[in-house]
Amino acid sequence: MLMTNFLQKRKSVRNFKKDTVPRDSLENIKLLMDELDREESEINFSLYENGKIVAEGLRGKAGYAGVMIEAPHYIALDIKNDKPLNILKGGYCLEKLNTKIVDLDLDTCWITVDEVDHETKKAIFGENGTGIDYLIAIGYGQKKKFFDPEVTSSRLTVEEIVFADTLGNPISIETLENYGVFDVFSSVRFAPSHKNFQPWRFVLKGSVVEAYMVKSDEDTRSLIDMGVILFYMEEMLKTIGIEKKWTIDLKDAGKYYYIGSFTL
């Protein structure tokens, strides 16, 4: 399967060198953060340059399998109002920032801290830091590894995430190829999601793509994942000459939430 250049660049590093990021790169990251803060008033990013304080404070409370990801720097995401739309935008903006950081030849890793107690967050991030639920670790990985579908855990097939006209109605590969989006949907399957839940579903109605999210007990994290996938879709569609944005219209749809639409 052919992967787009965009998704091939997607990588996650869990072992960072102790080397700090040069000052000019950190300043560039601050400019990117400020730009996104201006775009979305309910989203706020903060850079914590002394990563040792963050790592030590979260040791045993966050990370992967109870092991904190230690990095020289961290970026924190604070969603000021936890409305579903803002959570969705949070995932979109965090991955947009993450991708721009990767473009600076740096390595990154998402860290979820939504289950960390408020007192710990206050001690690490300050009195106003209790709303911080996601971090990006930044630095130089000890070993870079590209986002490779051959080494990821099981993924749903294209036919299991993309449908024709209505959810559950099979779509043919030929139809997706006729619209030039088969490779895009093949690639987007390998995007990361919490517990590999892969909550995204798409319906192709003529030249319109509708996005849905499977309901679960962890809708907040799934909304973050949906924000990420919407960003991926936009970026990958750009590689085939389609430069448009999703129209978001969150609403209940039975076993799913309707997220929005995109015109090819």
From TrEMBL:
- Which InterPro entries does the annotation name? Nitroreductase-like, TM1586_NiRdase
**Cofactors:** FMN
What Gene3D superfamilies does this protein map onto?
A: NADH Oxidase
Name the domain of life.
Bacteria
Which ranges carry the Putative nitroreductase TM1586 domain? 6-234
Keywords assigned: Flavoprotein, FMN, Oxidoreductase
Give a yes or no for keyword Chloroplast in this entry: no
Q: Which GO terms describe its molecular function?
A: oxidoreductase activity
Which family does the entry's similarity section mention?
Belongs to the nitroreductase family.
Q: What's the protein name? A: Putative nitroreductase TM1586 domain-containing protein
Q: Which organism is it from?
A: Peptoniphilus harei ACS-146-V-Sch2b
Lineage, uppermost ranks: Bacteria, Bacillati, Bacillota, Tissierellia, Tissierellales
